[in-house]
Amino acid sequence: MTLTEKKKRATMTCCTICTSFLHTTTEHKCLLCGDHSHEIFYCPKRCRICHDSHLTANHICYICKVKGPGSHLQKECPTRCGVCFSPEHKTEEHSCLVCGKKGEDSHLNGRCFRTCLICHSENHGTNNHQCMRCYAKGENSHLEKYCYLRCQICDKSIHITEQHFCRLCFKSNKHRMEDCPERCKLCTGLHSAYMHSCKICGQKGEDSHHMSDCPNKCRICQGNHITSKHVSECCFRTGALHSPDKCPNLCDICGAFYHGTKFHKKRSCKICGTFSHNTRYHLKEFTLSPNLSQLN
Q1: How many helices (H) and strands (E) does the chain have?
Q2: Where exactly are the structural domains of the chain?
Q3: CA dihedral 87, 88, 93, 96 (to 10 degrees)
Q4: What is the model's pLDDT at position 34?
Q5: Nearest Cα to 162, choosing from 171, 152, 176?
Q6: What pTM was computed for the model?
Q7: Which of 7, 10, 75, 18 is CA-nearest to residue 41?
Q8: Distance of alpha carbon 43 from the chain centroid
Q9: Alpha-carbon distance 180 to 176, whole Å?
Q10: Degrees (nearest 5) of the Cα angle 82, 88, 92?
Q11: In the 8-state DSSP scheme, what is residue 3?
């Protein structure tokens, strides 16, 4: 768009009929009849059948191919499919997607004799469906997860209630593994008490303890490891017996633990303007006297 066209559009008034800035009210024209008094959606020559933006003479039913004022909508077509009531095809063109049967004697996909109405499988019909638990067969059958022979304790269909057993004690068939009385009380793991082991010191059995109560826990950071395996966050040495704020490689000027004093970049203090220390140097004086004029 050129500059002259932009200036012309900026000075152009809005069309009062269609509220468009591309033309004025005198330049407005209906796209159907060419009249200057109305919009295309309110045109009297608009299609009276589907109320779309075309003439009534151009309306066509795509099923029976009837065109003109004597036509109709597709959903009201007398020759539409009488099986699935779809307006997209005729009854003679309907076909089952399972067995491939076509015509008036066809049926819906869900009512095909080859489709099981219970498990929705296309490999067998409803009369041939069989539950593998109770061996119920036919229309009165059911899925395995809804079978009355499924386990009433753990609510699983892989075994019946009489075959259920706890995987911790291997004795009782009256409780789940989560509710077993021999479950470990030191942690929340699904194992017995004699199988419990501390991940820090490796102590096993009922006399063991939780990781948070381990006596060999790291004395520096209180982490879940022994003190000899402690890694310093400043110098990254394994077995360093110091905290990050007491590391020998700590910067003495700014107190940063990610670089030493030799690698400190000279930056002036924001309070006094010197390069010998950082702003943290005045932290104690800041708390005692908040007036900055006393620091100078």
Answers
A1: 2, 0
A2: 245-296
A3: -90
A4: 85
A5: 152
A6: 0.31
A7: 18
A8: 47
A9: 6
A10: 45
A11: H
pLDDT tens digits for range 238-254:
777 777 677 777 777 66
192 — phi, psi (to 5°)? -80, 170
Determine the Cα–Cα distance for residues 232 and 218; give it in Å rounded to an integer: 12
Q: 138-159: buried (b, 16+ CB within 10 Å) or exposed (e) per residue?
A: eeebeeeeebebbbeebeebee
Q: Which residues contact 251 (CB under 8 A, 6 or more apart)?
A: 257, 259, 260, 261, 263, 264
d(CA 179, CA 190): 10
Under DSSP, the state recorded for 293 is G
Are 264 and 253 in contact by the 8 Å Cβ rule? The answer is yes
Helices (H), the chain: 3-11, 283-288
Terminal Cα distance for the chain, rounded: 65
Q: What does each C-alpha distance from 81 to 146, 153, 178, 182 come to in angstroms?
A: 37, 51, 57, 67
Residue 296: per-residue pLDDT: 37
Token pair in block for residue 289 = 């006297």
Q: Counting Cβ atoms within 10 Å, is residue 282 exposed (0-12), middle (13-18) or buried (19+)? A: middle
State which amino acid sits at residue 285.
E
d(CA 267, CA 275): 6
Strand partners, 67: 60
- Given a contact cutoff of 8 angstroms between Cβ atoms, the answer to whether 98 and 126 are in contact is no
Mind listing the pLDDT tens digit for each residue in 93-151?
888 877 778 888 887 876 777 778 888 777 777 888 888 878 888 888 888 778 877 78
Q: How would DSSP label each residue in 54-96?
A: SBGGG-B-TTT--BSTT---STT-TTB-TTT--TTSBSTT-B-
Closest CA to 273 of 295, 242, 240, 247: 295
